[in-house]
Every structure is written in C-alpha cells, then in structure tokens.
Write a structure and sequence with these properties.
conserved putative lor/sdh protein from methanococcus maripaludis s2 fold; 4 domains; single chain; alpha+beta; 23 strands; 378 residues; 7-stranded mixed sheet; 6-stranded antiparallel barrel; Elongation Factor Tu (Ef-tu), domain 3; rod-shaped; OB fold (Dihydrolipoamide Acetyltransferase, E2P)
Length: 378
C-alpha cells in the first residue's frame, strides 16, 4: 500500500513538467506571419478637385395661358410625359367662339355681295358700250352737219355718264375685295385667338409641376405647368473662386450622382461669368451624357483633374480605417508596427499620405488577416 502512494506523486510531477515546453514551442511558431511589403515612394500623381452641385434640365420652361379665362379641364399630371403640341388644359372659350362667329358672318356677308357687284359692273359696261356706239354715230352725223350741236352734246354727255357709272361699279367691287380681305384676316385672327383657349406643350418633355386646377382663373404670364425638355440634363456645380483658371469649357469631368451605380464621364459645357460675392464661388454647367438616369434636384459631385504633383502614396488596401483613425503596418526588422497616418486624395487604387510615413519605408501589403501590432513577419 505504501508503494502505490509513492508512485502517484511521481506521475503528477512528470505531467506538470512537460506541458510548458510544448506551449512555448507552439507560441514561437504562431508568432511569425508570412507577409509582403511595398516601399513608400514619392510619385507624380494626378491632382483632383471635387465640387458639389445639383442636376438641372438643360431646357425647362413654365407654360402659361395667353388668354384670361376660367380653366375648364386639366388633362395632365405632374410626372406625365407629353409630346409637342399636346393639349395640357382647356379654358372657357365662349367669348372666343362668339368673336370667331361674328368674324365669319361678316366675311360671308361680303362674299354674298360679290354677285350683285359683278352684275352692276356688267350692266354698267353694257351701258358704256351702247353710249360709245351711239356717240360714234352721232359724231359721224355731226361732221356731216346732219345733227345739231345739242344732239351731239347730249350723246357726248351720255357717254361720259356711262363711263362714270362703270368706273363707280368697278370701284365698289374693289372696295368689296378689300373689305373681304380684311374680313379674312379677322377670321384668321379670331381662329388664332380661339386656340388660346387650349394650353399646349411647347415641346416634348416631362411635366415636373402642375399649378392648374379646374375653375381657377388663368391669366397671361402666370405659370400653369413646368415642363422639362427631353434630351438631356446637366450638373450645375459650385466651384471655388481659386479654381477659376484651372477649369475650361470642354474639359473632361467625372460625375457621381446620388443613387447611381457608378460615375459617368461628362464635359464642361458652360462657365458662368459672374462669381458669387457671398460664397466666392461660380457655377460650372456640366452636360451629362445621354442615357443617364437623372432628375432635376439630384445631388452630384464633379471631379476635375487639375494636373499632377509629387506626393507619397500607398496602395489603398494597405490603409486600415477604424472610426476616424487610419493606420498602416510598417515592416521594419521583421516586425509589423501599426502607425497612424493622415490620408489625402485617392487616385484609382492609390491613397495619398499626408503625414505618418516617409519615402523609403516599407508598408505591409496586402495585410494578412489577423495581423496585429508587434507581430513578427517573415
């Protein structure tokens, strides 16, 4: 019994002595991490400038009535697409209808007087022809001393009277023609004015605002609708005054719109000549390419390339972000050391380093999973 009690402590002691050796071996193996690094270099990278802006339609027009009258019917809603000339609303046109009918009646009255005038001209021409024939006969007889002076004078007077009547009937016919032309103009003017009772779309596009309601009095110059023309939008970006000399018409720009999957390539179409004295900025209008899904009021950012300048950069994947802090792992003497850095602009897969690194240092990239500050690297 005493022999068994003596063996148990020996076994326990042997077990306790072997465990630390195995643990030390495992810790030494896990501390070394395989990693690669890149050398921080000073490179010439493109300088970019971003400006925020708002999307606007290239052509947007308020639509109003050209006639004062009560709105009878509104045929479109905000968000509807319309074609050029499509009727958007109709007004009370009873006064216009009366004016048109009056003009048409006056025209028809003049037209009906034309046959009578033509008959008068024909009768006057027949009398003139008879008076001329009579005058020629009397003239021959007068020269032969076969009639008296009084008879010759009476024939001459009848000829002159016939000529005057004929000229008068022709003048009356000319007056009818002039009055008829005027009546035609009045009818056409009334027909044009009659169209004022219909408010039509000036071009094809999208109805973005509707202010018209049935029963409301429409007045010339008071907008009833707002329509944006189909065919394009533009980003109106607010650019700092200091960048005025760096941006030109036709310059290539990258535009990122809220809600868009990816940025699009665009070009500067117009630069406003005036600078806002309050914000010290000016408006740059950038035409968006066709096919881009955009709406007036969308927020967007324009990215301008302003040349190149030397800067320190590292791969974007080498920078870790935790909240507001940014850091990289610097490889030195086989150890990875975490170091806080300040970053600047990004260019493709590179990130500008403003502070925290110097040229010639090595940065771990790509960063192995689980790499910690002070870890040994191979």
């Amino acid at each position: 019994m005493k022999r068994y009690l003596w063996l148990v402590p020996v076994i326990l002691i042997s077990g306790c002595g072997s465990a630390p050796k195995e643990k030390v071996a495992e810790d030494n193996t896990a501390a070394v991490v395989s990693a690669t690094s890149v050398v921080v270099k000073e490179e010439s990278l493109p300088v970019a400038y971003e400006a925020a802006g708002t999307v606007r339609a290239r052509t947007s027009s308020p639509v109003s009535s050209r006639w004062m009258g009560a709105i009878r019917e509104v045929r479109v809603q905000a968000g509807d697409r319309v074609r050029e000339g499509q009727v958007l609303a109709t007004l009370d046109s009873r006064d216009l209808d009366v004016n048109l009918k009056r003009a048409e009646t006056a025209r028809e009255a003049l037209r009906s007087s034309i046959p009578e005038a033509e008959s008068g001209i024909a009768a006057a021409k027949a009398n003139l022809d008879f008076a001329q024939a009579t005058f020629h006969r009397m003239q021959d007889l007068y020269e032969k001393k076969s009639i008296s002076n009084q008879e010759f004078d009476e024939a001459s007077t009848r000829l002159k009277a016939s000529q005057a009547v004929y000229e008068m009937t022709r003048a009356r016919r000319a007056q009818i023609n002039a009055r008829l032309a005027q009546a035609e103009q009045e009818v056409r003017a009334s027909e044009v004015t009659r169209t004022y009772a219909e408010v039509s779309a000036p071009f094809a596009g999208l109805v973005v605002a509707r202010l018209a309601e049935p029963g409301v009095m429409a007045s010339p110059g008071v907008p009833l609708f707002t329509i944006e023309r189909d065919g394009g939008y533009r980003l109106e970006a607010q650019v700092e005054e200091s960048k005025l000399t760096s941006i030109r018409v036709g310059q290539a720009v990258t535009v990122a719109l809220d809600g868009a999957d990816h940025p699009v390539d665009a070009r500067v179409a117009e630069i406003a000549p005036l600078v806002d004295s309050a914000s010290h900025s000016y408006v740059v209008k950038i035409d968006l390419p066709g096919g881009v899904t955009a709406r007036t009021g969308l927020f967007g950012r324009a990215r301008f390339q302003l040349g190149n300048r030397p800067m320190l950069s590292v791969p974007a994947g080498a920078v870790a972000e935790k909240g507001q802090l940014q850091s990289v792992f610097v490889a030195a003497d086989g150890v990875a050391r975490a170091r806080l850095v300040t970053t600047g602009q990004r260019s493709k897969d590179q990130v500008e380093i403003l502070s925290g690194l110097t040229a010639g240092e090595s940065v771990v990239f790509p960063v192995p999973p689980g790499l910690a500050d002070g870890a040994r690297i191979r």
